[in-house]
User: Fold 3'-phosphate/5'-hydroxy nucleic acid ligase from Mycena metata.
Amino acid sequence: MPSRVVTCSLNSNHSKSFALLLSSSLQEVDHREIILREARNKFRVKASSVFLSGGLTLAAGESLPELVSQIWVGKGEPYCGPVAGTQSPASNSELHLISGKSYLDDKAIAQLKTVGRLPGVVLTVGLPDLHPGSRFPIGCAIAAEGIYPALIGSDVGCGIALYELSPRPKSTLNPSKLASALQGLDDPWSGSVAAWLSNYGIARVSPFDKTSLGTVGAGNHFAELCTVERIIDDTAAAQLGVLADGLYLLVHTGSRGLGGSILATETANESNPYIPPDSAHFQEYLTEHDYAVRWAVANRDLVAHRIKQCIMPSVQDVGDDAPDTQLDLKKITDVTHNSVTKHPLTVRDTTRELWVHRKGAAPADQGVAPCPGSRGSFSWLLQPTGDGQYNAHSLAHGAGRRYGRNALHTGTKINKQNLTQTELGSVVVCEDPDLLIEEQPDAYKDVTCVVEDMAEQGIASGLVVLRPLVTYKVRKDR
Ligand SMILES: Nc1nc2c(ncn2[C@@H]2O[C@H](COP(=O)(O)O)[C@@H](O)[C@H]2O)c(=O)[nH]1
Ligand SMILES: [Mn+2]
Assistant:
């Protein structure tokens, strides 16, 4: 059964609060006891009373009324919370948190609750990779009547694709040699971008085509050569075309500057504009959004194509003379994790078509989705399960960050060698020292917990586990 989230503030100091996840399991109906225990841990005070809005107290053994989403905890002093009727309007939307073992940051839950109060928002879903963003949370799906472009973020179309580089490499796979073969990937592609883009139904020209198409783009993006660590579902893996001995490539990148330019246009006059479904601008925005989504797919394919050209001599899989205008690799899956798409959803007994904004969430209705961990951990291929209603047809798109970038710059001297070779024996190509620190494996949550949480909640099951061999970030300094 779903859990609920309640904001718990200190009665004597309202700036101190935390998000409390209350399980709906029958064993835990003494909410007061649970709240006091958590509050003592979080606030480090001898909490002894729980107030509801207006000053009513929660008695021992009593459950919290269903609609209550804010409480105040005191140490015996009189109630100091808002008087009844003066609070900001309660959220009309539903909040579903899909978690269990995975760490969920209070700030991310608070951000998601804030999003849930936006007009037109009907359902917010926090996936186990949920973590705080600069304004809006990441690792979530937000179902609304219209569209909020800022909820998708600037990298419209960002996603992860998996390609087969070789079903059975003929030479031994040496991570260092493969890494040295990855050259020139940050330079603009020398082929015909117009011809490449035309394969994706794109006839438009943008300033980003020549400079950025076919480049990974550093930041949190990566391209990773992988082998298969474990096949969990043999039948499904065979259907997908994933073989135990194959060499595979994960590509995580997006629309580079194109998505950012679309968001900048939308937010020129207002930081979080809302586009209602009946507005004249609605279709205009969707046209731009769909363009960026297709451009990002074309970009992932071109990155994969260029990587194949770099490394194929190393795996002796030559002999393909396809023209340099289309992908000559087998693509296993490609899912977009920053986008907005329409889905039927039943929320509070009402079924309607809603626009599901995904900011770092994979779609659950498009077959197998990669769930990468970090450059130093395994990545998973997931089979979506269930009817998609509780999770708004969405899955975790990765492990999600455990620590923000700044928190990782501790000032301690870093041994670069430790960061360019991982515990799994893989090699990292990253010549930007800051990025090397910010994207270290410890920056991310445990992807196994993320996958287990989704399996537990019946939204996905793991099919295949991939092992990193070489992770490519960037050769040039930022
Ligand atoms: N296999 C790898 N996974 C990685 C790496 N760096 C990050 N990650 C995971 O990808 C997602 C992407 O999230 P996004 O919000 O940046 O789109 C992230 O949550 C990590 O779990 C890597 O180098 N290799
Ligand atoms: Mn991404």
